[in-house]
Automatic annotation (TrEMBL):
One Pfam family in the UniProt entry: LRR_9
Gene that specifies this protein: Lrmda
GO biological process, one term: melanocyte differentiation
Protein name: LRMDA protein
Highest taxon of source: Eukaryota
SUPFAM superfamilies: L domain-like (SSF52058)
Organism, as annotated: Calonectris borealis (Cory's shearwater)
Length: 139
C-alpha cells in the first residue's frame, strides 16, 4: 500500500507492481494521470476534486481503463463526480445509480464501486445503458 500526499504522481512509475493505492484528500482533479500500473487492483480517490463537468470524467475513466487494466476496487466518494446524497442534498439514489452505471460501463472489471459490490444486474444494465447515464445538471 502506498500513501501519497501530493499533486504530482510522476514517481509512481517506479512502482509498476503496485497493487493498492490510496490517494484520498489530495486535491486531485479530472486531469489525474497515472502511469501504467498493470497490477493495481484497488484505487481509492475519495475526497478529491473529480467532477462530471463536460467530458472530463469520461476522459479520466478512459485513462484508468487503459493504465490500470486489473482495477477491481474503485472509490470516488466525496467527489462531485460521485452524486452521493450525503455530500450533496440535491442528489438522490437515482442519481447515484446512474453514476454507477456510467462508471461500470467504462470500467468493466470492477467488482466494487465505492462501498458497494457490483451486482450482475448492474453490470448488465451498464452494458446496455451505461454510456447514456452520465449525471449532468441542466443549464
Amino acid at each position: 500500500v502506498a500513501f501519497v500526499v501530493c499533486r504530482s504522481l510522476e514517481g509512481l512509475k517506479t512502482f509498476s507492481y503496485l497493487e493498492e493505492l490510496i490517494l484520498d484528500n489530495n486535491l486531485l482533479g479530472n486531469d489525474l494521470l497515472l502511469p501504467r500500473l498493470p497490477h493495481l487492483h484497488t484505487l481509492m480517490l475519495n475526497k478529491n476534486q473529480i467532477s462530471f463537468q463536460r467530458n472530463t470524467c469520461k476522459i479520466l475513466l478512459d485513462h484508468l481503463a487503459e493504465v490500470v487494466p486489473s482495477l477491481q476496487y474503485l472509490s470516488l466518494l466525496g467527489n462531485m463526480a460521485c452524486p452521493n446524497e450525503l455530500v450533496c442534498k440535491e442528489k438522490d439514489e437515482d442519481d447515484y445509480q446512474r453514476y454507477r452505471y456510467f462508471v461500470l460501463h467504462k470500467l468493466t472489471n470492477l467488482k466494487f464501486l465505492d462501498t458497494r459490490k457490483v451486482t450482475r444486474r448492474e453490470r448488465e444494465e451498464a452494458l446496455v445503458r451505461g454510456a447514456f447515464m452520465k449525471v449532468v445538471k441542466p443549464k
